[in-house]
């Protein structure tokens, strides 16, 4: 769906999803961010600065690697990997973080706040804040700071202040509430940096914009290498930012299938129903009273009961397909990719790999699949070691 299809009368809607369901004191704050984004996103100087940091700091453009041994072993479609795992900090999140911080600077902010569950978005934010000279405060549920000790230390090394939140259940939702309170109090100096394609308008649109660099590059690269577009693009879906970035340039190419992959245990799009969580309308896993249901995934980045509004719309309109894979399929794909291609993927990304492994053999050998490798797996190696040991016993 092009930006033009965003329903302007109902601001920030993708079909029936999105919008903003927020306390009145936040409305003016988010409108200010939306206005600044509209003002700067197409400005040549802004684009030039963004591209400068993507090249010199993140290391873009990253390759579209043909997986020769994996494709041969599976038989069937030819598989390419878009290598977001090779970015500085090891994942796609930095694309969005740098874009939003540059926007914050244009707005006169000198302080960035964010909330993080597993810590990956917090680390990416602290990293780019250090590089761009911004104060950085990260809110994190107290329970999560215990489970993610090493990421807390990383953020502190990078100069960020990590605030453990022990209100409520001490989890992500409580950290979001604290960050929003901070924003309402300090909006003149402070920018709230959202890490995925979720949240109230204008965040899903901003994140789409900055992550679309993934498919802008992959489209150019596949045309150079194969002289044609892929038959299928596959990406894992947590909140939906790497997937929307991997899909965006293909949404209007109707012959390209777009497949988002979720964990069986957090199958938001496969099993969710329309509801409002965290300030926006989407398909989500909820109880009869509309409270978010607990989810669980071996990949912390996919452990979220909602999903971005644009994916909700792609699903309902039929343009996007959303599938699940099991924990076992993910662990198998993780090891298979390591052995055949010498790439250890993030557990999140291994969901997309698992779907490609399952699907490629039934496709034609002239077909092309692009799998978005959203991140590298160094962070997950110990977790996988323990999971595999558990199975032996
Ligand atoms: C955070 C993360 C994800 C999930 O977030 P999305 O917004 O759905 O992309 C996926 N892969 C990696 C490597 C991540 O760090």
TrEMBL record:
Pathway(s): Amino-acid biosynthesis; L-tryptophan biosynthesis; L-tryptophan from chorismate: step 5/5
Top class in the EC scheme: lyase
Family annotation (Gene3D superfamilies): 3.40.50.1100
SUPFAM superfamilies membership: Tryptophan synthase beta subunit-like PLP-dependent enzymes
GO molecular function: tryptophan synthase activity
Top-level lineage group: Bacteria
Ranges for domain Tryptophan synthase beta chain-like PALP: 60-375
Keyword Amino-acid biosynthesis assigned: yes
Keywords on record: Amino-acid biosynthesis, Aromatic amino acid biosynthesis, Lyase, Pyridoxal phosphate, Tryptophan biosynthesis
InterPro entries in alphabetical order: Trp_synth_b_CS (IPR006653), Trp_synth_beta (IPR006654), Trp_synth_beta/beta-like (IPR023026), TrpB-like_PALP (IPR001926), TrpB-like_PALP_sf (IPR036052)
Catalysis performed (reactions): (1S,2R)-1-C-(indol-3-yl)glycerol 3-phosphate + L-serine = D-glyceraldehyde 3-phosphate + L-tryptophan + H2O
Residue positions, PTM N6-(pyridoxal phosphate)lysine: 93
Entry's family note: Belongs to the TrpB family.
Name of the molecule in the record: Tryptophan synthase beta chain
